Amino acid sequence: MRDIVTLIFMAGIAPLVIRSAFASLLLWSWANLAALGFYMFGFMAGVPYVMVFAISTLVLMLTQRKQVVGKWELGGTQVLFLLFSLHALFVASLAYPGIERNWEIATNLFKNILLCLLMPLLLVNRARLVAMVIIMALGLGGHGVVEGLKFLASGGSHIVLGNPKLGDNNHFAQSVLLSVPLAFYLWQYSKSRLWRHALLGFMFLVAMAVIATKSRGGLIGFVCFGVWMVLMGRQKFKGLMIFLAIGLAIYAAAPASWFERMETLQSANEDASFMGRVTAWKRASAIAVENPVFGGGFRAVQAPVIFEKFRYKQGLLGFVETPDVNYPAAAHSIYFEVLGDMGFVGLAIFVALMGAAFTARAEVQRLVRKSGRDDLAWSVDMVNAVAGAMFIFLITGAALSAAFYDFQYMLVALADCLRRYVRQQVNPRKSTANLRP
């Protein structure tokens, strides 16, 4: 049944895909995050949705130039994307032999960065920027809605183990949480009561899905969301109310086993799971010390072929006493993952690229404040939501191997598109040359 419904849906949107580069870009972004194949069980399971929408976008942009309404510029964010891609190419080429998925991860990263580099060519007005926010929130948060419904239907007994797209329960909790700041932004600006209630339900179901993962990182992510929206958001009271509402929902719906699991945060230094992660951080930094420029290759930290070589090396964390681990566990940290896989140079570029979302936020706020343009207040709220999602990612990612997922790079590109738009609105004469007629 799912396959038939999906086929009908694809047939319905086919006219959009073959006529509009912008629509194709939105569907490319959505398919990139939604992982439709995971939910199919029949003839639609093997359809390469992302490839289909990516090809249609590129073909339309090349053959119908009038649809490309923006001009590609080599700005700071684009330079960082290109540097990261070039560095990744060398990393994959010079990796230790026998590392599984080395080139697979590199290739996926290149594809995602291509999507990010194309976004400024089409996201050139408020309506298109909002459409991308909707697509990103639904693409990632949709996983949480499905699992949240299962959790409620089961009376709280459903446990989320993750899925092939987002990873295990911890990765799943982090990923779906990133959609909440974007949904909060959409809730702020929804004029329809029906849509406002739908978005509240969306955030509630995502919260239920995170409870169902029993992930301690999920709780930390919720706290990060609350801290960011209350301290950094423009509408602090609304942010506080939403945060408290989600907190009350968690307290009311979470089973006793969830609270018992969260209490272990107080004794992280005695937790075998956490100390095992520190051991992986030692191994990752040891790989980087021996390969400071290009690291060991993608997934080097958890590669069985090089595990014994670095098993007992202390790297940068020799001052921490950790138990011996006899298997090649993942890095369990975006920072140590990039450090071990891509070296110190790769880590520096990665941090700068993630930081670009915050520099864009600062510039948008400054430009709107100096111009006195109250009609651009929405852009400040949108870039705050994007930066809030990035804040959640950077904090929760400290204990997860999620550096090469798609969403964070799309957040950086979206923040850059917002910055470009606000620049054009505030300084139209200076920016007119950067847009095609």
Write out the strand line-up for the largest beta sheet, numbering strands in chain order. Answer: 1-2
The overall average pLDDT, rounded, is 86
The structural class is mainly alpha
Continuous helix count: 18
Helix content: over 70%
Shape: globular
Return the string of H and E elements.
HHHHHHEEHHHHHHHHHHHH
How many individual β-strands? 2
Q: Give unreliable regions as ranges.
A: 432-437
Compute the separation of the termini in Å: 46 Å
Radius of gyration: 22 Å
Strand percentage = under 5%
Subcellular location: Membrane
Domain DUF5935: 1-187
GO molecular function: ligase activity
Protein name: O-glycosylation ligase, exosortase A system-associated
SSE topology:
Layout: H1 2-19, H2 21-34, H3 49-63, H4 76-93, H5 102-122, H6 126-153, E1 162-163, E2 167-168, H7 169-177, H8 179-189, H9 193-213, H10 216-231, H11 236-253, H12 256-263, H13 272-290, H14 304-310, H15 334-371, H16 377-396, H17 407-426, H18 428-432
Antiparallel strand pairs: 1-2
Helix pairs in contact: 1-2, 2-3, 2-5, 2-6, 4-5, 4-15, 5-17, 6-7, 6-8, 6-9, 6-17, 7-9, 7-10, 8-9, 8-16, 9-11, 10-11, 10-16, 13-15, 15-16, 15-17, 16-17
